[in-house]
Amino acid sequence: MPKKLYALAYISTATERLSTPEAIDALLVDARAFNRKCDVTGVLLHNDGSFFQYLEGSKDAVDLVYERIRRSLSHRNICELVSEPILLRHFSSWSMGFAEGSASELQAIAQAHWNHERSNLKGASHVSPGLKLLLHFWQNSKRCVA
Ligand SMILES: Cc1cc2nc3c(=O)[nH]c(=O)nc-3n(C[C@H](O)[C@H](O)[C@H](O)COP(=O)(O)O)c2cc1C
User: Fold this and answer.
1) How much distance in Å is there from the Cα of 72 to the middle of ligand 1?
2) 91: in domain
3) CATH number of the domain where residue 124 is located
4) What pLDDT, in 10s, does the model give residues 30-83?
5) Ligand 1 pocket member 13 (CB < 6 A)
6) d(CA 55, CA 83)
7) Is 130 a member of any domain?
8) How far is the CA of 12 from the centre of ligand 1 (A)?
9) Is 146 inside any structural domain?
């Protein structure tokens, strides 16, 4: 039986060591290699030292990746937005897609409701307002190859 899927999203702030495009690039190389091994997919958005990240995969794999993320000294103020079971992957072809967003785009995504329970009218939709905004942003963004 296939493992149940899980998603986690958080925001954080870069520390000094992640202040150049080269440092972010090196992080992406490392993160993508690990995510591929764990079969974790998702996206990382960045604006001027602020990050938003969405991860999806089996619960064990997402936990493992998130543990690495929490241990990283390259960012701080990690604030979890959602952590819950999901029915399907939305970023299945991205081991870690990356895009630069505007400050207001990141703010809107981070401040949206991310829990299904709070957003779901009569169980009709399985996509929270936060995920809807993220998917819309991703479809229209100049994303980088994963
Ligand atoms: C914003 C951010 C996103 C990250 N995303 C991932 C990820 O998706 N997968 C992963 O394995 N590690 C991820 N990491 C951890 C890094 O790949 C790397 O292991 C870590 O930055 C190395 O530790 P250090 O930053 O303390 O030097 C992330 C780190 C940061 C700061």
Assistant:
1) 6
2) yes
3) 3.30.70.100
4) 999 999 999 999 999 999 999 999 999 999 999 999 999 999 999 999 999 999
5) no
6) 9
7) yes
8) 12
9) no
